[in-house]
Amino acid sequence: MLIGGGRRSSKHQKLNSGYDEGSYPHLLQLYTSPPTGNISLHEFEHFAIERLKVLKLLENVSLLYGKGSDEYKIKLQNELRKMGMKHFLRTMNSDNLSTSTNGEAVFEDCRKDHISHFILRLAYCKSDDLRHWYIQQEVDLFRFRFLRESDNSTSIKAFLAQNGFNFKAISQEEKQKLRKELVSSTYEMNNGSFDSNYFYKVHFTAALDLVRSRKVYLKCGYAYVPSSELLSLVANVFRLELSKALARTARMFPVIEEQQRLLWMLNHINEWYLGDDYGNKKSKTRDGITADMINPVNYTFFGGIAFKVIGLFLL
After folding, report:
1. Of 6, 165, 210, 249, which sits most exposed with the smallest number of CB within 10 A?
2. Half-sphere exposure of 98 (CA within 13 A, CB side)
3. Phi, psi (deg, nearest 5) at residue 32
């Protein structure tokens, strides 16, 4: 990922990466690989601000409504529209991948999501408090997106397969054969909810919390997890992997401390006031440094950390 100087219109930001239809086979992302391509320093700042606005919105709405409730989901969707974050909403519905007439636009939305996640990793890796806040909000964002997909079993199965989850969906024949055991042994399961759920056969070590609390049927070392509980398993994996990634990034962060052009921005992102529209030229600017004031320099993302590379490249 190359980061250079210069400013582009925030209304028409296209990443210098090259459209690749296969880069994002699913809108749900685990962010296991760093992004590639080029962005300007202004885009670096703009993407960070946009994602931070979304994460702070998640935090605020969670104080008003129960996470995952209908009120919570409706409030988030309405507020994202008000904030002009329609591209975030587009990355929360897999139907856009198959029905969109502009595949490049969906690619751009996914790529902004991808890059902005890694930018905030850099900004929020430096202390336990920052890491804890960032992980919680990113997990909540992932859960919100997953819930929007939960009615689409084909989409969820595709996501699990693409990301190497060894969760095998049982057949309808096996489901009906185990009906009595599944209804009696699964938490809050009755005949009505049984018909609307599909079940995954998961090794018990991947569902220890559910097994420990006796929420799932256990047979021959495998837990039979209903679709209603699947999110908890996947979200735990997301949380664990993100925690590990932030710890690695924190250990590598001293390398970037030598690069003053990005260091100020990364050190102050969590302190920025986000009430103004930063895409509006009439908005008040913050005191201090902005992307326009920074001399051009190239950086590359490696494992989620920015490294200076040889030579100058002005976007």
Report:
1. 6
2. 6
3. -85, -20
Mean pLDDT, residues 98-118 taken together: 78
Average pLDDT of the residues in 285-291? 43
- Percentage of residues of the chain with pLDDT beyond 70: 73
Token duo for residue 224? 């039979």
Q: Which CB contacts under 8 angstroms, 24+ apart, belong to 221-225?
A: 224/170, 224/178, 224/182, 224/186, 224/199, 224/200, 225/167, 225/199, 225/200, 225/201
CA distances from 109 to 93, 112, 222, 315 (A): 12, 5, 38, 20
Q: 3-class SS at 230?
A: helix
The torsion angles phi and psi of 51, rounded to 5 degrees, stand at -70, -40
pLDDT band at 207 (very low <50, low <70, confident <90, very high): very high
Q: Is 217 strand, coil or helix? A: strand
Give the three-class secondary structure for 95. Answer: helix
Beta carbons of 10 and 279 less than 8 angstroms apart = yes
**116's tokens:** 């902005």
The helix/strand/coil state of 59 is helix
**pLDDT(67) > 90:** no
Contacts of 313 (CB under 8 A, 6+ apart): 2, 4, 38, 296, 298
At residue 31's C-alpha, the angle toward residues 93 and 237, to 5°, is 90
